[in-house]
């Protein structure tokens, strides 16, 4: 059975009254994709926004006409990270929930030692990087290095290009022409260069995002004290797709760091 969305409210980025999620998901123009993100500097939040940016046109082809994201942060941080990944905010409704209440109500994984308030949240996060309370973390991280010969992930090249244009390092994975043409150097790898997702390609993007977004902008994007107290540092996310009546067609709750929804699978579910 799908999770209940009853009683969940989110706050619009631009302020104003909170929005009842059940009502928001009723969309006479078609289906709706809603993402329960994490805090703004988090790998998972960044990758959700990078994937969404690339897949909006393809999702529209399946009848998804409304896109919403809630991030566990303050409005300034949400706006900043959206700009860093070149997300078109005219296409996406961004909401903020500094303490991650909406995600908790949806039933996302709240991380390792969630009930141990005496343990430093950064210690909990460190444990999760090794799979504690988030079993899919290590497979997702390792997968970024070894690639995948079967399932394409075209959003990676798009996100790498955004990062390079904004001056983020590593900046040598792509050759971007003045006319916008892209030569992906991972295509030139022997044997594996024709894989749908080449080895090291995703790992390179994650390094670029870690250094150029998370670390360089930590003061701007990191959780504040209230958010840390609420446990957002270790809280994971998820997403839901609903029909025009707001009935759930697909849902996913993430199972690890770097283990967010595969949008190639999501397209097939839409």
What does this structure look like?
Helices cover 37% and strands 15% of the residues. With 270 residues, the protein is an alpha+beta fold. Strand 4 (64-71), helix 3 and strand 5 (93-96) form a beta-alpha-beta unit. Helix 6 packs across helix 8 (201-215). The longest helix has 19 residues, at 43-61. The two termini are 18 Å apart. The model has no long low-confidence stretch (mean pLDDT 97).
Main features:
seven-stranded mixed sheet, two-stranded antiparallel ribbon, 270 residues, 11 helices, alpha+beta, globular, 9 strands
Summed up:
The protein has helices at residues 21-24, 43-61, 75-84, 101-106, 121-129, 137-146, 155-165, 201-215, 218-221, 225-230, 263-269; strands at residues 9-12, 19-20, 31-36, 64-71, 93-96, 174-176, 182-184, 238-242, 248-253.
Order of helices and strands: EEHEHEHEHHHHEEHHHEEH
How helix-rich are the residues, as a percent range? 25-40%
Rounded to the nearest angstrom, the radius of gyration is 18 Å
* Beta strands, count: 9
Let me know the average pLDDT.
97
Report the major sheet: 7 strands, mixed
Cα distance spanning the termini:
18 Å
Low-confidence stretches: none
Query: Per DSSP, what share of the residues sits in E-state strands of 2 or more residues?
Result: 15-25%
Biggest sheet strand order reads: 2-1-5-4-3-8-9
* Helical stretch tally: 11
Summing up helix and strand content along with how strands pair, one would put the structural category as alpha+beta
Principal-axis shape equals globular
